[in-house]
Structures are given as structure tokens and as C-alpha cells.
Design a protein that fits this description.
Helix content is 35%, strand content 25%. With 503 residues, the chain is of the alpha/beta class. The strands form five sheets. Strands 6-7-8-3-9-10 form a six-stranded mixed beta sheet, with helices on both faces. A six-stranded mixed beta sheet has the order 16-19-20-13-21-22, sandwiched between helices. The protein has a four-stranded antiparallel beta sheet with strand order 2-1-4-5, covered by helices on one side. The structure holds adenosine-5'-triphosphate and magnesium ion (MG).
């Protein structure tokens, strides 16, 4: 057997969920192996079994041709298997060096006592991944991309021969992704195998050698990347082919619903003014860090605003808090759904109906029956993979948790719906369903704002596009005149004209 890793007929059940039914995976040394499938297909579960977080109900694992038992994360590390989770497992208040050696204090006790050595050891591994930060810097002060690099450095410091990256690119800028891919290629040259999970097919084609597809907890197949097309992968993932991406509906545009005038909030929101009309889908394009999410947070009252006016249907918001915003008919699907959108220990039903007191009432009382009816409707519409409406949100897959947050705001029937990166981490099929629901809401007269870093999505779905850079609006394009090139040009020109810091 030339394979570095063989996972054979792995079976894993959770209460009410057959997460994996007889899944196999073979990884060769020094290959980049993509693992793909719809939300809830079982990708993270399979990798958690490999890294010793979950036990399996049935199946065998072979490493270097030898059968092995992996019953803890320490076992996995010992073999040379490291996993980098989407939610990075770092201690924010510890230094970069301490995080690299975390959990190995025993073996490196001396290093810990002698911090000069800790630092120089850590430096070596950081240089290896090409990360130029101070080893004494605290993890909380690093960007997500830098923290990921620290995790990879950590994996190398324990001589990992297989590194699993679970959706590593979802919060990275294009430039950071290029850097990460460069590093993945270097790892491959050094003979390290990488399992790469992502919902972005362009990335899969760029970086992987082979691809394994899961669907509904089943193994569908493994293909050589050079031999396959996007259509084939979608067919394998979804079980049917998908056509008609970006189903933009033409709906009549009505009166102004949301008015924002001279909004200022911190450094990242400077004198932002715009409005959105009924039936309109307004896109916000720009680089990561352009101030788009901050604008939405200030608008919704999550972040304080320093000055400006926000009005819905001509009525100025008075208190400037999320509850005031909700009262006036504004809904926000935030960028960081784990932190801001979802209550993990509550059920799918509770999360879906949380912001929707009115529709779930009957004669003044909360009606469980109505709550269930609404939840079931959205579980069906968004194809949320859950054991039922009473499943706790914490037990859903990453993408399905996001769908619940989106359901929650779609269900409120907000007059103004703000969607911040609504399809990030969402599989191709569900992405199309979310776009269709946006069109449906717009046709019912909602004013919709969508922030997205995916230009094709913005161009495909929006009636008008605002381009932001360094906290201000730099362009406002109609659907008919907007192109990828025009948007990039506005961003690049703004960059050149950038006012030096401390103006
Ligand atoms: N701890 C748990 N308890 C109960 N069910 C779980 C648990 N962890 C995962 N599941 C279920 O197992 C299935 C597979 O989930 P998994 O997280 O592996 O999906 P995924 O392929 O990683 O999806 P995504 O692309 O959305 O991240 C889902 O139906 C999920 O709800
Ligand atoms: Mg996952």
C-alpha cells in the first residue's frame, strides 16, 4: 500500500443523524487532497474522527500501512496528523511562541523556562511558513490569516506529515489566499500531505491534486483534479446538475425605504450616505477591510455611531440600538454568524423564530405550533440538514448553522434586509436557493443590501453596486454599467489616492 493514510468504511452516527455511513478516504504522501460536499455531508466529522476528537462507530484507519487506533488528539499528533479548524483553537492572550508550544509543556519544559530558546525555536518555524511577526506578539493582535499561519507553524513543529485545513480560506482576502496557497505548495514539495476543505470550486481546481466527494454521509468517489470539470463535481456533490446561476429577477423598483445620511462610526465608516428602494437589491463591493461590515453594524446599531441619520420609510431611528433597528423593520445577517447570529445551545426552532415575535403569536401568546410551522417552512426552503426542529444549533454543520441565521431574518419579513456575505461557506445548491429567496423578498417590496467579496455574485444579483474603500463610498454603479473591471478600477484608483495615515 503506497498510501500514507487509509480510512476504511468509517461509520458515525449521532442521535438522529447518520453523519457518515461507510466512508473511505485514501491520502498519498505529498498530495493536496480536496474534500468536498454539500453542507452537512460529513466532511468535518470525518476529519474530527481522524484527529481523535470523535470516536467512530465502525471502520478502520491505516497509517503507513499499519492499522492504528486514534482515540485522542494526542494520538493523532503522535502519528503526525494535525488539523487546523475553522474556529482556530488558540489562546488569544498568549504569545505566538507560547501558542506554538501549547500542550507540549512537558517535553519542552526547559524551553518554557528559558524563553529565549522558546522564542528562537518559534522563530524557526515561523520563518519556515514565511510569517514575519514578532514571536512575542499576542495571538489576539494578529489577523486571521496570520493566526492560521501560526497554526501551520505549530503543525510543522510537531513534524506533521498530514495537515487538515477545514475551510481555511473563508475569511481570507485574495492576497492572503495566494500566500496560503504558496505555502501549501511548499508543504507538498516537502512531502507533507494536505487535506483541503472548501466550498469554492475555483480554489479546488487551483490547489488540489485529487478530490474526494461526500454526499449525505456517503462516499461518492475520488477523482484526479486534471480529469474533471466543474459540472462533474457539482453533479457528484448535489446528485444532479445545476443550471442558471444568479437567478436575478426583474422586479419594479419602488420608493426609498432606507435612507442613510452622513454616517460616521470609528475609522472604518466615514461620511457614508446612500439609500435603498423597495424591490431593490443593493450590493456593497470592496476589499476585505473596506468598512462594509462596519457600516452594516453601525446601521443596525451593533456598533455606536458618532453622527449621521438613519431613516426607514422617512422615520428617523431614535435610540440607535439593534432593538430599535428591528422595531423599524431592519434585519441583519451578520458576517460573523457564530458570534453574532446564533445561540448555539438553543434549538433550530428557537433560533429561527427568535427575532420574529409577531408571526409566532396566537391571541397574544407564543404559539409553539406556529413556531414549528415557520421553522419547517425554512428548513425546507433552505434545505437545512437537521435531525429536526428541536435539534440544538451547536450540533449542525458549519454551513447549516449559517442557514439557520439566514432563515431567522428571512422569516421576520424585514422591510430592510442586510445580508453580510450571506453565501460564504454555503454549498452551491443552497447558494442558489438563497439567491432565489432574495429575489422573492425583493418582489414582495423588501429593500435588500448584500455585502459580498465575490464579484460575480454582486454583479449577478444586484440592481446597483456601491464600492467602498477605506471607510468611504468611492463609486455607485447601476447594474447595466457595472463590470468586474470597473469595480476593480475604482478600488485601485482609491488605493493610489489614499490619504496618508494621520491626515
Ligand atoms: N456533535 C454532533 N451532534 C449531532 N449531530 C452532529 C454533530 N456533529 C455533526 N453532526 C451532524 O452530522 C452531519 C455532518 O456534519 P459535518 O459537520 O461533518 O458536515 P460538513 O460536511 O462539515 O458541512 P459544512 O460544509 O456545513 O461544514 C450533519 O448533519 C450534522 O448536523
Ligand atoms: Mg464542516
Amino acid at each position: 500500500m503506497s498510501e500514507l493514510l487509509m480510512m476504511h468504511n468509517i461509520r458515525k452516527y449521532f442521535p438522529g443523524v447518520k453523519a457518515l455511513r461507510s466512508v473511505s478516504l485514501a491520502i498519498r504522501a505529498g498530495e493536496v487532497h480536496a474534500l468536498i460536499g454539500e453542507n452537512g455531508a460529513g466532511k468535518s466529522t470525518l476529519m474530527k474522527i481522524l484527529s481523535g476528537v470523535y470516536g467512530m462507530d465502525e471502520g478502520e484507519i491505516f497509517w503507513d500501512g499499519q492499522k492504528v487506533e486514534i482515540s485522542s488528539t494526542a494520538d493523532a499528533t503522535e502519528l503526525g496528523i494535525s488539523i487546523i479548524y475553522q474556529e482556530l483553537n488558540q489562546l488569544p492572550n498568549m504569545s505566538v511562541a507560547e501558542n506554538i508550544f501549547l500542550g507540549r509543556e512537558k517535553r519542552t519544559r526547559n524551553i518554557f523556562l528559558n524563553s529565549r530558546e522558546t522564542f528562537s525555536e518559534a522563530r524557526k518555524f515561523l520563518d519556515n511558513v514565511g510569517l514575519d511577526v514578532d514571536v512575542r506578539a499576542l495571538c489576539k493582535d494578529l489577523s486571521i490569516a496570520q493566526r492560521q499561519m501560526v497554526e501551520i507553524a505549530k503543525a510543522l513543529s510537531v513534524n506533521a506529515r498530514l495537515i487538515v485545513m477545514d475551510e481555511p480560506t473563508s475569511s481570507l482576502t485574495d492576497r492572503e489566499i495566494t500566500v496560503l496557497f504558496g505555502l501549501i505548495r511548499r508543504l507538498r514539495e516537502q512531502g507533507v500531505a494536505v487535506v483541503f476543505i472548501s466550498h469554492k470550486l475555483e480554489e479546488i481546481f487551483q490547489i488540489s491534486d485529487r478530490i474526494t466527494v461526500l454526499r449525505d454521509g456517503e462516499y461518492i468517489g475520488t477523482v484526479e483534479t486534471v480529469d474533471c470539470s466543474e459540472d462533474l463535481l457539482i453533479q457528484m456533490m448535489v446528485g444532479r446538475s445545476l443550471t442558471g446561476f444568479y437567478p436575478k429577477r426583474e422586479v419594479p423598483i419602488g420608493d426609498v425605504v432606507l435612507q442613510v445620511e452622513h454616517l460616521n462610526a470609528g475609522r472604518s465608516v466615514r461620511d457614508v450616505s446612500f439609500d435603498v428602494r423597495a424591490g431593490e437589491i443593493l450590493g456593497f463591493a470592496g476589499l476585505v477591510g473596506a468598512g462594509r461590515s462596519e457600516t452594516m453594524r453601525a446601521l443596525f446599531g451593533v456598533d455606536p455611531m458618532e453622527s449621521g441619520r438613519i431613516a426607514v420609510n422617512g422615520k428617523t431611528l431614535s435610540h440607535h440600538s439593534p432593538s430599535d433597528a428591528i422595531q423599524c423593520g431592519i434585519g441583519l445577517v451578520p458576517e460573523d454568524r457564530k458570534l453574532q447570529g446564533l445561540i448555539l445551545k438553543m434549538t433550530v426552532r428557537e433560533n429561527t423564530t427568535l427575532a420574529n415575535m409577531e408571526a409566532t403569536r396566537e391571541k397574544g401568546f407564543v404559539s409553539r405550533r406556529k413556531e414549528e410551522q415557520i421553522t419547517r417552512e425554512y428548513v425546507r426552503k433552505l434545505d437545512i440538514r437537521t435531525a429536526g426542529t428541536e435539534q440544538k444549533a451547536v450540533n449542525l454543520s458549519g454551513g447549516n448553522q449559517q442557514k439557520v441565521v439566514i432563515a431567522k431574518w428571512l422569516a421576520t419579513g424585514s422591510r430592510v434586509l442586510i445580508l453580510d456575505s450571506p453565501t460564504r461557506g454555503i454549498d452551491v445548491g443552497a447558494k442558489k436557493e438563497i439567491h432565489e429567496l432574495m429575489g422573492e423578498l425583493a418582489s414582495q417590496g423588501a429593500a435588500i443590501i448584500m455585502v459580498s467579496s465575490e464579484l460575480p455574485e454582486i454583479l449577478g444579483m444586484c440592481d446597483r453596486i456601491i464600492v467602498m474603500h477605506e471607510g468611504s463610498i468611492r463609486g455607485d454603479l447601476k447594474r447595466s454599467e457595472a463590470t468586474q473591471e470597473k469595480i476593480m478600477e475604482i478600488i485601485l484608483t482609491s488605493k493610489k489616492q489614499a490619504i496618508p495615515q494621520g491626515e
